[in-house]
Write a sequence for this structure.
């Protein structure tokens, strides 16, 4: 974990070294000031030597200014190092997330990743700044102050030592009690962020079902959980200050009482007593700073572990040593393919898949919910790797291709359509960043999206809100299809991507595909038989297996499941999951 995070310091190594150097120099200059103050009192004020007062006073001012300069420089470099460190962590996390396969992403919740990149990184940033500044300053300050106190008077300095040991023991137990609560707190932030994210993204559904009160109670519960944990932690931490103040005032009283007696007995000078009082505050305040460091570190350790989990996660999918960059055609073949989302092969979602699709064919895929239709097509663009067997595209195993090249030639319109904030043209150019406006209009005509785009006030420059909230489900689907077509792929996969459009528009899209992209292999997952009955072949999926494969007429004659669904949908409605003949 430490090695993983330390690697993110990168170009801020110089600042990370200079910060503690300036902190140590600041302590050195501050430590000299009480000694010079004692000299002014003993050799200047009591002796009536004004010249000595001016000279030593000048050195005190110079020392204070040097200490101030070092403190400012330490703060400057510390801020630069910590903010740069946090920036690098966020960037590295984001870059690593971009490499994740779907199976890697399945290990983390969206809210959890957001929390890691915001709250957890902020905690690490604060902890790193404290580590560079206070973690060096406080111990060195304690050592210097204690050394100078012993040089002045060992008997009185022993009072500091005893107080410091007792205070350290008490603070240890206080912090240990708080640490367990801090470690419990950050997973609760995931729950809070999940509640907020879910509510905001689904606000229309919440309002449609009048569930505002329910969502509010969920958020209150998540907030209350964080409040309760931090309250318990703070009940422990809050004891730091009274314990510290009691120790400080006890030390002051003991030093004053013992020091006064020693002055009377000429064993100590007034100036030395004043210096000891100053060192007393330095020692005990440094110990308080150390206690703060432990509190902050206990909070940041949990955050550091969560960040390291993301940084150390390696993609399950990697490019081969000498990848193939050219996908010759859209031919697809499955050879004895088994697939599971988990390592346990007994939980396989695809079993014994053998299939061959010629380049340029249109193939429909039908199946009930959970029949693994989406899992089947996800293997083609290598969003997941097979558990056993081989998937070939263009006559080659998909694992031989450069993944970027493969996915550029296998366009997938996923089941959950996503549009990003920006204009329609900007969204379309996700398919091809260099596409001209005319090319964008052409693919929109193929996807029957031009019909509604041209009716919008700003046409293709119409702004799409985040998630496509200002367009209908059917419009969103057609824009996503157009975006995929802009890639000019060898294989086009439509994963239930016309479910929100009417049958007439669905027919137009299919006709445009047949006429405009005849060489592109088209896989169409659908619930409506009418969406796929004109395909070259139709695959019927059932419980992760291919139950039927053939043309519409062949399946009507030979496949019971397909026939039941067709009759159900043509004799009065019903979807794929409503089997004909059931009461």
């Amino acid at each position: 974990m430490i090695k993983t995070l330390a690697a993110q310091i990168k170009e801020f190594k110089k600042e990370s070294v200079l910060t503690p150097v300036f902190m140590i120099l600041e302590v050195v200059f501050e430590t000299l000031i009480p000694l010079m103050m004692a000299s002014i009192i003993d050799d200047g004020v009591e002796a009536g030597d004004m010249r000595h007062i001016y000279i030593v006073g000048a050195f005190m001012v110079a020392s204070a200014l040097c200490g101030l300069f070092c403190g400012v420089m330490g703060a400057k470099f510390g801020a630069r190092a910590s903010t740069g460190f946090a920036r690098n962590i966020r960037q590295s996390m984001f870059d690593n997330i971009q490499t994740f396969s779907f199976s890697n992403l399945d290990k983390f919740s969206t809210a959890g990743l957001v929390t890691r990149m915001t709250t957890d990184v902020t905690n690490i940033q604060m902890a790193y700044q404290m580590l560079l500044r206070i973690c060096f300053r406080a111990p060195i300050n304690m050592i210097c102050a204690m050394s100078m106190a012993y040089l002045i008077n060992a008997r009185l300095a022993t009072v500091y030592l005893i107080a410091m040991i007792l205070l350290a023991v008490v603070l240890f137990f206080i912090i240990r009690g708080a640490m367990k609560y801090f470690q419990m707190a950050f997973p609760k932030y995931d729950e809070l962020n999940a509640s907020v994210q879910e509510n905001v993204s689904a606000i229309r559904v919440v309002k449609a079902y009048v569930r505002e009160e329910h969502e509010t109670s969920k958020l209150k519960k998540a907030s209350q959980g964080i409040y309760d944990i931090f309250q318990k932690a703070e009940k422990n931490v809050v004891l730091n200050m009274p314990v510290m103040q009691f120790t400080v005032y006890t030390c002051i009283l003991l030093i004053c009482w013992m020091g006064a007696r020693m002055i009377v007995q000429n064993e100590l000078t007034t100036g030395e007593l004043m210096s000891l009082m100053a060192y007393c505050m330095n020692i005990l305040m440094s110990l308080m700073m150390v206690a703060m460091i432990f509190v902050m570190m206990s909070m940041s350790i949990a955050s550091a572990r969560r960040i390291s989990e993301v940084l150390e996660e390696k993609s399950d999918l990697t490019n081969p040593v000498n990848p193939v960059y050219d996908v010759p055609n859209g031919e697809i073949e499955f050879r004895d393919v088994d697939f599971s989302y988990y390592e346990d092969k007994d939980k396989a979602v695809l079993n014994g898949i053998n299939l061959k699709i010629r380049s340029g064919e249109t193939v429909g895929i039908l199946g009930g919910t959970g029949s693994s239709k989406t899992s089947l097509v996800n293997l083609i663009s290598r969003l997941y790797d097979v558990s056993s067997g081989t998937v070939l595209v263009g006559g080659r195993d998909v694992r031989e291709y450069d993944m970027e090249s493969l996915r550029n030639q296998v366009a997938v319109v996923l089941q959950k359509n996503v549009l990003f904030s920006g204009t329609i043209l900007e969204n379309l150019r996700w398919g091809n960043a260099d596409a001209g406006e005319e090319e964008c209009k052409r693919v929109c005509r193929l996807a029957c999206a031009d019909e509604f785009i041209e009716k919008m006030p700003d046409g293709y420059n119409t702004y799409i809100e985040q998630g496509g909230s200002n367009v209908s489900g059917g419009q969103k689907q057609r824009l996503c299809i157009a975006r995929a077509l802009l890639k000019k792929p060898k294989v086009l996969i439509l994963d239930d991507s016309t479910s929100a459009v009417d049958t007439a528009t669905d027919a137009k899209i299919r006709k445009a595909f047949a006429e405009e992209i005849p060489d592109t292999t088209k896989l169409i997952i659908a619930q409506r038989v009418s969406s796929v009955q004109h395909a070259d072949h139709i695959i019927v999926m059932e419980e992760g297996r291919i139950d039927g494969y053939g043309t519409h007429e062949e399946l009507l004659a030979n496949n019971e499941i397909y026939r039941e669904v067709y009759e159900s949908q043509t004799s009065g409605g019903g979807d794929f999951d409503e089997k004909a003949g059931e009461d």
Notes: Residues 573-583 have pLDDT under 50 and may be disordered. The two ends are 60 Å apart (CA to CA). The first strand starts at residue 332 and ends at 339. The CA atoms of residues 92 and 311 lie 7 Å apart.
